[in-house]
Design brief:
Layout lengths: L2 H21 L8 E5 L5 H9 L4 E4 L2 H10 L7 E4 L8 H5 L3 E6 L2 H13 L4 E6 L16 H9 L4 E7 L7 H17 L4 E3 L6 H6 L4 E4 L1 H4 L4
Parallel strand pairs: 1-2, 1-8, 2-3, 3-4, 4-5, 5-6, 6-7
Amino acid sequence: MAMSDIAAGLHATRARVVAACAAAGREPSSVSLVAVSKMHPAECVREAYALGQRAFGENYVQELVSKAAELSDLPDIQWHLIGHLQRNKVKDVARLNVVIETVDSERLARALAERAALEKKNIDVFIQVNVAGELQKSGCAPTELDAIVKSVRAQSSLRLVGLMTVPPAEDPEGARPHFRALREHAARVGLSALSMGMSADLEVAIAEGATSVRVGTAIFGRRV
């Protein structure tokens, strides 16, 4: 994808966020944009960075580690791991400045906290909730949420930021009840940050309270 296309995609996505916030009676500053750069080369990230984008999401630990090293000259870049994290990969991400959006078990929370303590780091985390109960997707069941919240909050090297979800691949309106459910779960456990909404449904997510949207295709184009 040509860099001029990335600029157009980023501009259009930012405009969509502003319009969605206006429709929901919210300030645009209340929603952050995570540009999902998975499967796109580091040069694409660098171009988006030059256009003012700072938060980038990666699905795979190996790709995240590689890009973080290649782009280490960008001082205020912020990485988000938005894919499943296996416990044996914790050591690879704990040394980075990364937000982990996919904590989904007490065991993972403890493993991440232990490694973060060894690295003398404090890591921001989201708990991923599989609101729709899809067998093929990661995330804790809503019935497990309270115990994981308690576990994360007990770890001095972790800071619980909010909740994250990936709804079923439906039309945007079909995602609305799942976004609403995540917001209700967050309120129940005393959290306000909600990572939800992607290229196809960010408007609905913002209407339902998203504070962070994760957008890849609309910015970088389809993955190769």
